[in-house]
C-alpha cells in the first residue's frame, strides 16, 4: 500500500516513464514479473491492463507512455528490434576493404556505421583520435552488438592506414562510386559530419569516389553515405 501511495504521488510524466521502463524490460527479457508489475500499476492509475503481449501491442503501449512522459523520440529510445533470423555465423567471408573514421563526432553515426560494417562483412575499422570508440555507451547501444563482431584500431593516423586509401567525399573530381573498381585490399575513408574529410586524409588519398546526388542538398548523413558505399563494395565483390 505504501508503494502504491508513493507511486501515485509522482508527477504524471514520472509515472509514465516508469510504465515505459517496465514494458522495455518485459520486451527485452520476456519475464512475467515485469508485465505483472506493469498491470498492477495500470490498475493503480485506473488504466486498462495489457493482455495482448505480442511485440506490436507491447510496442504500441510503450510509445503511448513515452508520449505522455514527454520523452522526445530518438532512435535510442526505440525498443530493440526483434530479429529471430540472425545467423549462427556470417554467410560470407570478410571483404578486405577496411574503413577509416576521420573525426566523426556522433556516437550514433559511429554505431550505425559499425552495424553496416558487420552486415556487409567488411574489414577492420580504424578510428581517428576524436572519434567515439566501440566502448562508448551510445556507440555500443546503436551498434546493437555488432561492436563485438568487428576488429578495430584506435587513434590511427592516415599514414598508418592500409593502402590504397580511397576517400568517400563530395567532389567535382570524384569518381562515381558505381564506376569505380575497388581494389581487392585497401581502406575507405569517411569524414566529419560538418566538413567532411580532413585535408590530411585528402592529401594522402590514392583515389576519391563520390555518390552521385541529384537534389538541392548535395550531401548525405555520413552513416547513410557509408551504407551506400558498403552496398556498392559488396555488390562488386559478391555480385
Automatic annotation (TrEMBL):
Q: Which residues form a coiled coil?
A: none
Domain tRNA/rRNA methyltransferase SpoU type as annotated: residue spans: 97-230
Gene Ontology cellular-component terms listed: cytosol
EC assignment: the record states 2.1.1.-
GO BP field? methylation; RNA processing
Which protein is depicted?
Putative rRNA methylase, SpoU family
InterPro entries for this protein: Alpha/beta_knot_MTases, rRNA_MeTrfase_TrmH, SpoU_MeTrfase, tRNA_m1G_MTases_N
An MF annotation (GO) of this entry? RNA binding
Q: Which Pfam families does the record associate with it?
A: SpoU_methylase
Query: Which keywords does UniProt give here?
Result: Methyltransferase, Transferase
Amino acid at each position: 500500500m505504501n508503494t502504491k501511495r508513493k507511486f501515485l504521488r509522482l508527477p504524471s510524466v514520472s509515472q509514465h516513464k516508469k510504465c515505459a521502463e517496465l514494458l522495455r524490460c518485459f520486451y527485452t527479457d520476456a519475464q512475467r514479473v515485469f508485465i505483472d508489475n506493469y498491470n498492477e500499476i495500470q490498475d493503480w492509475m485506473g488504466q486498462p491492463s495489457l493482455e495482448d503481449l505480442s511485440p506490436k501491442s507491447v510496442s504500441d503501449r510503450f510509445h503511448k507512455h513515452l508520449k505522455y512522459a514527454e520523452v522526445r523520440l530518438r532512435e535510442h529510445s526505440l525498443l530493440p528490434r526483434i530479429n529471430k533470423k540472425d545467423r549462427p555465423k556470417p554467410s560470407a567471408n570478410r571483404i578486405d576493404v577496411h574503413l577509416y573514421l576521420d573525426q566523426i563526432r556522433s556516437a550514433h553515426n559511429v554505431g550505425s556505421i559499425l552495424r553496416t560494417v558487420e552486415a556487409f562483412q567488411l574489414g577492420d575499422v580504424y578510428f581517428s583520435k576524436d572519434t567515439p570508440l566501440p566502448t562508448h555507451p551510445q556507440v555500443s547501444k546503436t551498434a546493437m552488438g555488432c561492436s563485438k563482431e568487428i576488429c578495430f584500431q584506435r587513434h590511427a593516423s592516415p599514414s598508418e592506414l592500409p593502402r590504397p586509401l580511397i576517400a568517400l567525399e563530395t567532389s567535382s573530381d570524384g569518381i562515381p562510386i558505381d564506376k569505380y573498381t575497388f581494389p581487392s585490399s585497401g581502406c575507405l575513408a569517411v569524414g566529419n559530419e560538418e566538413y567532411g574529410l580532413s585535408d590530411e586524409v585528402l592529401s594522402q588519398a590514392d583515389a576519391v569516389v563520390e555518390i552521385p546526388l541529384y537534389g538541392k542538398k548535395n550531401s548525405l548523413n555520413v552513416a547513410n553515405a557509408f551504407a551506400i558505399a558498403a552496398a556498392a563494395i559488396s555488390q562488386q565483390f559478391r555480385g
